[in-house]
Predict the structure.
Amino acid sequence: MSPEEKINADQEERLCYMALENRSRELAAYIEAIGQLALVSVTDRNGRILQTNARFCEVSGYSEAELISQDHHILNSGTHPKEFFAEMWATIEHGDNWHREICNYSKSGAPYWLDSTIVPLKDDDGQITRYLSISIDITERKQADKMLRRRLKEITCLHSIRRDMEQELPPDECCQRIAVHLRDAMQFPEIATAVIKLDGRHFTSGKYSQNLTHGLQAQIIANDKVCGWLQVFYHESKPFLLPMEQDLIDTIRNDLGKWLERMQAEAERKENEALVWWQANFDPLTNLPNRRMFYDRLEQEMKKSDRSGLPLALLLFDLDHFKQINDTYGHAAGDMLLQDAARRLGGCVRGSDIVARLGGDEFIVILSELADPNTVERITQDALHKLAEPFQLKNEVAYVSTSIGIAFYPADATDSSALLKSADQAMYTAKNQGRNCYSYFTASLQQAAYARMRLINDLRGALAGDQFRVYYQPIVELATGVIHKAEALVRWQHPTRGLVSPAEFIPIAEETGMIADIGDWVFHEVARQAAKWRTSHHATFQISVNRSPMQFHNDGNIHAWFDHLKKLGLPGQSIAVEITEGLLLDTNVTVTNQLLAFRDAGMQVSLDDFGTGYSALAYLKKFDIDYLKIDRSFIHSLTLGSNDMALCEAIIVMAHKLGLSVIAEGVETIEQRDLLAAAGCDYGQGYLFSKPVPAEQFGALLQNARQPI
């Protein structure tokens, strides 16, 4: 080694020594700053004591010189099993804090109890170098608890003996029972006391002599002042009797009565406190932690994650279509399903993980300290499988699935609220992907969530700001080429974004409930326009209006629709209502009543996008459907002899057999129009005739289209 290298090495060694000395001084100052309340000690990784404070020496009875460099076993009382300390070492060597109540022996041999927390201390590289122990002396509390338990035992024994003696049992049976009671009272090593009501004459007559300890009868006979009560002390299994006067008996009776009342009141108070705490922190239906307890546990697990350097995952579960369970089988069955779902989730996670119920059909799981990245995938797949299994609800069997959103701490968020929000956004992505699946949170989800929130806020003011427009697309009779009908389509003219696609804002309007007000506004605009065009163009002109499934949840507004048509002098046939196939499968009585009400009012019903959904043919006649609209996906590649052509022909024939008219959507070429007309299709709608246009342009289109298109 060169002289320069040796100088550098010496300087580096001095700097390391100074840093270590500074840390030792800081730790010593910290220990003394804790004050007289806590016992503080520092051990190395092998359990040798390195530092203590004055309070530690005071309680243990050892001086600091006697403790330094000693193994920690010098303090052990032998009260705890080996497994107790094995668990302690496993915890702190893993880098986690350890917190328990522990019993030690002082130098004089007296036991003392500590409420102890051991914290691993790490160097700059994250390696554990020492262990810091901070303890509170709880010996007096432990002694008080033991005294209370002993007093409870004494009173229990007293009442049992008093009850047996007052039954006037045969001497042998009575003494046998007394022996059992006193034996039970000897469960504590301290002196056990029992006050027994006896008749002294029974002893003098010898009725109990064969069941009493040798020498006991002589003591009783020799005392003529026995008045029916004896106080029996047991110590080291040796019995002693002491006669008592009535005044002393009364005093003891009163004292015991007061003790009993106080202890009963204390027990009731603690029971009430425990009940209030439970109700505030746990879900009464599933016994899982509730939202409040979840946040508390999450904060703790995030701190553990910071110390260990291992991430945690948050899994948010939302049961798919759970509302249908409540609507179909009732809320009691729904509660049974939630309880079973909670048990299944608990069986999918590790023992250290936390399962909570946020409310409704939402559950959340905290997967802490993820050393193996495959753990999340395994648990998620297991949960999807378990929750997809049938649920037995008394005499019914129900099926649900779940959508799961997954977020990681600290990668996806650095605080609990943001982490839950990230998991929530991922969960909604899983629902949009078809449900019964899971999705991980990504930065793009965050951006989409912010954009969606801004869109919702803008949408709330769109109606009041007169930002909606109604566009009309012609529906042409294929046999004549004349415009007989039109479909009304709502458009949103955003003040800064321009025209917003209906595919973007209609789902949001449905989720937020704003679709009801928007739908009513569209109907009033369409009715006004229908009245105008029936006068200027044709008396039977009809406009179809799309009605969202969400609008069927409230049947109050359809009567307002009927009243508005009467006010304008319009018959029901002036408006057709377009619905989707899925709505026909909804057995809700509200949906059924509305469809029948439209029929009774003379309003026709058109089944939109036919062939892409359930195609529930049995429902077509049940609800008096008037039109089938062949979905554009069948028209797009329509050619002579193609499968799409065969399907279109089959739909047209079937509809006509049922007395329904057929409208083909998405007609864009003359070939498509001619093939559909040749197959007997009644109407066509698409860009071949016109794209959706504002009312003014559509009016001009009607004027120019008096000749066939």
About this structure: DSSP finds 25 helices and 25 strands in the chain. Residues 186-245 have pLDDT under 50 and may be disordered.
